[in-house]
Amino acid sequence: MNVASTSIATETPWLLRKSSVQAMGVFLFVVLGSLWALAQDTRFAYLLVYVWFGLAYGALLQYGRFCMASAVRDLFAVKVPRMAVGVMIAVALYAVVAAIVSLAGFSTFHPNAMGWHIVIGAAIFGFGIVFTGGCASGSLYKAGEGNMNSMLVILAISFSQAVVVSASGWWDALVPQSWLDAAAAQDMPAELTITQGWFDIFTAGYIWGLKGTTMAEILGMAETARGIILANTLLTAILPVMIILVVLYVIYYRKGYLRRSGKANPSLRDELAGMWAMCTSSKNTALAGIGLGILAGLHMYVTGALREHYGIFNFGELLVAMGYTNGLSIQDTVFDPGYWYITTQEAQWGGWVMQKLGIDSMDSIFFGLDNGLPNPLLNAPGFMSIGIILGAAIMALSRREFKWKLPSWETAFFAIVGGTLMGIGARLAMGCNIGAFFATVTNGDPSGWVFLVGMTIGAYIGVKVFTWWMDWSSARKASECGL
Amino acid sequence: MIKKEKSIWHETCLILRVAKRRMGVHVASLLDLFHDRPAGTSSPVVKDVDIPGLGVVHVVHAVDCLGAMCPRPQLLTLKVLSEVGPGEVVEVVLDNPTAVEGLPALAQTLGCAHLAAVREPDCWRVYLRKGW
Predict the structure, then answer these.
(1) Which tens digit of pLDDT belongs to each residue from A401-416?
(2) Which residue in B has a C-alpha nearest to residue A82's C-alpha?
């Protein structure tokens, strides 16, 4: 095939380019900000781990144009498996590093509750990502490229989640009486009012009755090296990844590859070479997948080691020790997953702003009991999200890919509606494609694959609706021009 | 007396009208921030383009995806490539890095040749030739 990728040679060396200087400026800003935080209190190192891993995630996501939304969407929209392959590479690598971290005893992972809510939430989320042009992390890195549409998506995700988890009144009619009864039977402090607010009833009356386990626990090998390696890593992550790669190869890549390489009767060797070609067809994406997988595992290790160092289970304890007691949950905790996570901290941003506007949501389980509503300046995972934006900005600036892009009315509308759906879906499914899929399947929790199935169904329907909309609007425009 | 009042009334009206017009201009310029141009259009063109390292290529169709979010660039390119004849070249103009990254894979799926991705200061021009 005749492929030539060319670039108009700009004579200015990298260092002297305006965008490179801006990239270094952003980097310097993060360095100085980190030093300032450490000067306030060295224990902010815990928060800075999130910042710097976020920065690295953002840089790698931008480098590999690692758009996880397109992993499922493009399979249906244009029949291209590029990102699906990239995500599978990242899952395999993350699983291997996560196994090492678990064996070393530093894992920060908690399995998600398994149930129908995952499929439904993931389908709503998957439908939304087709219209927003990116998933939760994708919107963060695209915001770092100067895309204001993605910034709108982040706003929509933040506020829709905050509203969903704290809404009551007519919303409460959405949940069945049996959940309300189950919630009422829970022994919880009265200030949480868990029988009011549909999400509280959903959490206390339904989610708490479900079980979340790892494959090792299911097979009775919990806490053993054999369980971690065989059940959690090989059986839950590596084997499904291999099966998915083979399926992707057979459906989307094999025919074209054999035609291009002129092999009529392929041997097993040819097929393996074809699979390798599929995995390496986009080098940037494959490299980003490898880097992200390794970093996501290392992130758990570093946070786990720091927790051991400070003798804590949650960042909330450290905040209390440093004298910051505002915005903690009634258990003195804040949201602190210890690994890559996106949506919950964005819900906290939305909830915090709403609280400042006089809408208090600390009587909800989500904020009041579990995650707290810390000041965004003390929200450690929140800084991971900001780190992703800044990391992507640094990478985009240094590659001259940064460009302020304003949305059209249509894309802005899609961003707000799609982002709202993503927020609703992420809360129902207890996370997004990162927290509920990427971080779970790599740590032995099979619920992530259920999330992927749901997200795929949602993306399939989303692509159908989006294509219909495009055809309809272009036909309408054509008829207007004809008149 | 009446005359004086009338002039004050006129003056007030005038000031209000100017303020309204200024406000109108201001609001309109704010609205202009959201460009109303449909992000993603395609049109038949006939032009010869000199691609560095590849020579002169005859382009028959141009797809303008400036400002478009995924998956619109991919879907538009797919549509245009299905409409042009075998061996014809399509030019896709994009400023969405993720979509640029996806086009070689899309070309491969469709059996098209990804001729070049030419980097311009604030966009890419990607040339795809439909396969025979």
Answers:
(1) 998 888 888 889 999 9
(2) B105
